[in-house]
# Entry
Amino acid sequence: MRIVDLIRRRGPFLSLEFFPPKDRTTWPAFYAEVEKLKALDPLFVSVTYGAGGGTQDNTLDVVTHLKRDMGLEPMAHLTCVGASSEALHGFLGALKDVGIENVLALRGDPPKDRPDFRFEGQEFRHASDLVTFIRRHYPGLGVGVAGIPTKHPESASVEIDLKWLKFKLDAGGDFVVTQLFYDNEHYFGYVGKLRALGVEAPVIPGILPVMSMKSAQFIAGLNGREVFGGFYEVLERTHAEGGDEAVRALGLAHATKQAQDLIDRGAPGVHLYTLNRAEACLEIADKLKF
# Structure
């Protein structure tokens, strides 16, 4: 079933994101983690897609197993990097053949091993190009798009981001999944601005608990400290006083508080970035009240 229809039929929910391990010998351990998280009754699970289609075959095999053998509703990620009409028809046709009804259309990040890569000149340059292609050729598929509550690193302003997010939704996107953030006012301000533009699509907030100072530094390097809304400095003080064990405890407590506040204030659900690890997500979910 299309995810947007599931959202309309169900109250506040949890959804989960996984990435397909490149080494297939680790798949049994990966599926064991997924099996643990089935207890959360996720509305859907999203599965990432490697840059340039690097793990495209893995994504297809994983979503097939999650749907057919584990009874979950998977959403396959799809990126512009290295995409062509022929390749997209092959991938989307294969999804359709195995009963996968949802994709997340993304521009994607430039491949790290190709410093000369440019989206200019690619057949598909923007996520909106993917949305338009899918709507034209696979109108029955559910299509999610991504949003960034604090501003895309390459964008001049949040307002420009909102303009292009609306463009993706007008092209046929059904709902939005946000990238991570650590201050809920970023999310609610973002949704308020979208509603002022006439956008009524569901906006699902994405939550990633901070599990170590190293991971916080990595997130800040990718997205800037703005995503933390002051929480980064709290993490630094906590790490100085108690090390990573204290940071993990604080990260889990903060993510739990975030998720509960989002649910209490009307978010349609919460999308947890699992990093393929069940323990942290189970700890968060165990404390939530729906």
In short: The chain has one domain: 3-209+268-283. The two ends are 23 Å apart (CA to CA). The CA atoms of residues 106 and 257 lie 29 Å apart. The mean pLDDT is 92.
